[in-house]
């Protein structure tokens, strides 16, 4: 396992800060919580609903790359259960539990809303902190006519790791996600995002230090 030195954490913080969109939230038509291994995303979505940011919450996610070996219950179903326990009523919740990646999150949510006769014009997407930018780029690729804000659990890099997702794994995933931000626009998966030179340099250094477990395999 690569050493988690002060240098590594400083490089990781550059990626973390880039992944955050830092959007200022305002009321919208729909909150869309994208499923993952991080159940705190559900808490954030529920809190935003209870604070009056939107009248509808969609939870989207089946079992994806990181959760298929962890759980048997789809991500969206677990998220919805957390929201209900927090006080979000059933009538305000829709569940899409088949998607396995971010693109499918968006496309399957489009289908679900259409089936329910709904066409929200504005969204708050809730994701993990280091997935904010990639979620934004993916959503705007597949649904460019919508108004979008992105947010996540309000945690720093140092606060984020847990027993289930230690710091080393967080850094590996961030490195992989930055690579995807760079290459996925050419594949038609995302809109382009300009990556500052210092952020890409930090990425290169982290890869050289061994944080390569989540890179795209050729």
TrEMBL record:
A Pfam family matched in the record: DUF218
GO cellular component: plasma membrane
Family matches, as InterPro entries: Cell_Envelope_Assoc, DUF218, Rossmann-like_a/b/a_fold
Lineage of the species this protein comes from: Bacteria, Pseudomonadati, Bacteroidota, Chitinophagia, Chitinophagales
Native organism: Flavihumibacter petaseus NBRC 106054
Superkingdom as given in the UniProt entry: Bacteria
Protein name: DUF218 domain-containing protein
Domain DUF218 residues, every copy: 29-142
């Amino acid at each position: 396992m690569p050493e988690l030195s002060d240098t590594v954490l400083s490089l990781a913080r550059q990626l973390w800060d880039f992944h955050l969109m830092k959007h200022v939230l305002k009321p919208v038509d729909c909150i869309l919580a994208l499923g993952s291994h991080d159940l705190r995303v559900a808490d954030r979505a529920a809190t935003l609903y209870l604070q009056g940011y939107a009248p509808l919450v969609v939870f989207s996610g089946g079992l994806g790359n990181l959760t298929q070996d962890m759980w048997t219950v789809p991500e969206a179903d677990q998220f919805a259960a957390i929201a209900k326990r927090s006080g979000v009523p059933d009538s305000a919740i829709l569940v899409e539990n088949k998607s396995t990646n971010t693109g499918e999150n968006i496309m399957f949510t489009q289908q679900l809303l259409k089936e329910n006769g709904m066409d929200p014009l504005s969204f708050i997407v809730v994701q993990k902190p280091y997935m904010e930018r990639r979620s934004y780029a993916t959503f705007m690729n597949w649904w460019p006519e919508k108004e979008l804000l992105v947010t996540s659990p309000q945690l720093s890099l140092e606060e984020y790791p847990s027993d289930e997702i230690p710091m080393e794994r967080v850094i590996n995933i961030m490195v992989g996600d930055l690579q995807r931000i760079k290459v996925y626009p050419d594949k038609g998966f995302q809109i382009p995002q300009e990556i500052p030179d210092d952020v890409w340099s930090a990425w290169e250094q982290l890869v050289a230090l061994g944080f390569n477990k989540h890179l795209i395999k050729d």
